[in-house]
Design goal:
Blueprint (H helix, E strand, L loop, with lengths): L1 H21 L9 H4 L5 H15 L8 H12 L12 H25 L9 H13 L22
Helix pairs in contact: 3-4
GO molecular function, one term: oxidoreductase activity
Organism: Rhodotorula diobovata
InterPro entries: Cyt_c_oxidase_su4_fam, Cyt_c_oxidase_su4_sf
Length: about 160
């Protein structure tokens, strides 16, 4: 009876010591940000699994380094979250080339277009003003009204 009660108290202690040995990280968790890229994929996987097991415990029991490492492994700038290092010169050259092509296209379309219409000449617009005055068009506020001081149809 004494022996069985002694074993009963010893077993949880043994289980705790095995659990403590199993909790040893495959790599040092302090400053994991600096060492993550130098780890082999196998070490990264072991570290990930170790941190996954640690997160199943109460978060109040985790050390600050363990919390930081868990956050970095889950949300750090590695793998698909790694920032894209775009070449700014290539982007600038492409943008300038596109603007240049658009400018040339605009120039050649304008060059090949028809002459300006006759209705855009100043003489034609003044003649339109005279015709509107003769027809007494818009007598309340327009060109035919008393005291009108605007330009009417003349835009040039």
């Amino acid at each position: 009876m004494l022996r069985s009660s002694a074993l009963r108290f010893a077993r949880p202690a043994l289980a705790r010591s095995y659990a403590a040995q199993a909790q040893v990280a495959p790599v040092a968790l302090n400053n994991i940000e600096a060492s993550w890229k130098t780890l082999t994929p196998a070490e990264q996987e072991q570290t990930f699994k170790h941190l996954e097991e640690l997160q199943k415990k109460d978060w109040k029991e985790l050390s600050l380094d363990e919390k930081k490492a868990a956050y970095y492994v889950a949300f750090g700038p590695h793998g698909p979250r790694e920032p894209i290092q775009a070449n700014g010169g290539k982007t600038l050259a492409g943008t300038l080339a596109a603007v240049g092509v658009a400018t040339l296209l605009f120039y050649f379309v304008r060059r090949g277009g028809k002459e300006t219409p006759k209705s855009l000449s100043r003489e034609h617009q003044e003649a339109a003003n005279e015709m509107l005055k003769e027809q007494r068009s818009d007598p309340l506020t327009g060109i035919s009204s008393a005291g009108y001081k605007g330009k009417g149809q003349v835009t040039l």
